[in-house]
Amino acid sequence: MSGKTAALPGSAFVPAGDGTWRSTELTRGPWHPEHQHAGPPIALVARQIERAAAPLGLTHVARLTANLLRPIPIAELLVAVQTDYAGRNVAHFSATLFSGGKDLARFTAIVQREAELAMPEGLPGHPLPRAPRPPESSPAAAFPFGAKFTGYPDLMECRVAEGVFFRGPCAIWFRLRHSLVEGEAPSPIERVAVAADSGNGISAILDFNSYLFVNSDLTINLLRRPEGEWICIEARTLVGPASGGLAEARIYDAAGLVGRSTQSLALRLR
Q1: How many structural domains compose the chain?
Q2: Dihedrals φ, ψ of 133, to 5°?
Q3: Residue 198, domain member (yes or no)
Q4: Which of 151, 160, 209, 238 has the greatest count of CB atoms below 10 A from its CB?
């Protein structure tokens, strides 16, 4: 890794015009010094999808799926969004993330119209569960690899609601230390997306120095719009006998459960 720099960038991405974005070193992930952690670029695409849906009066991103085709370089990115179908209450979107003339990731999303709707009391499973501990009573923590390089660990502040980093099932609160996009406050779906891709890392059960367990996708399902700066990912990793695995997580804000996420894992020896 490249080591720490004296001054950190102010954001993960800087607009470069014509739908392009300059990536900063705050996006760097743990797998390769020239590659991004997938959380920030997934959040960037979520931002663009959300903006495509807003003129239709659709404001709740109910599902976001990212198919990660190639490593995402710390470079200039292009995001292209398409409306596949738009009805009165629900629209389907697709998007592609490009760099250097190559498509790096493809996305689909469902965005819904929000409206107040009274629910009967006493529904099974309700009220919805809360995170193991609220952020204000969860101790601060740092990614085990965070001291080695400037990157994602500098972008995100973390607190432990339950468990221990990289030692099996655990719940971690995430909050952006810096803007995702220069000069902007992140939206709820951006806050969720930039954190949710860490599920397989925080809940790792294999030795990081001996194994690779990279996710090739991420699906986020949300039952309501998250609130506040803190997002909790309560994750666990499951591994199969033929180099496959699954990371699954519950997603919370300070008020309680907001959704779930899953990641397909490809397991390899380093």
Answers
A1: 1
A2: -145, 150
A3: yes
A4: 151
CB distance 12 to 64 below 8 Å = no
**Which one, of 70, 77, 98, lies nearest residue 12 by Cα?**
77
Residue 48, φ and ψ in degrees, nearest 5: -70, -40
Q: How far apart are CA 56 and CA 51, in angstroms?
A: 10
Find the domain containing 45 and state its range.
11-114+135-269
Sequence-ordered strand ranges (E) for the chain: 11-17, 20-23, 60-68, 76-86, 90-99, 102-112, 140-141, 156-162, 170-176, 179-181, 211-215, 217-222, 231-239, 244-253, 256-269
The stretches in the chain having pLDDT less than 50 are: 1-2
Q: Exposure string (b/e) for 232-258, b if CB count within 10 Å is 16 or more?
A: bbbbbbebeeeeebebbbbbbbbeebb
pLDDT tens for each residue of 88-125:
999 999 999 999 999 999 999 999 999 988 989 999 99
Task: Tell me the CATH number at 226.
Answer: 2.40.160.210
Q: What is the pTM of this model?
A: 0.94
Q: Which residue has the tokens 């690899």?
A: 145
**Structure tokens belonging to residue 249:** 């997580």
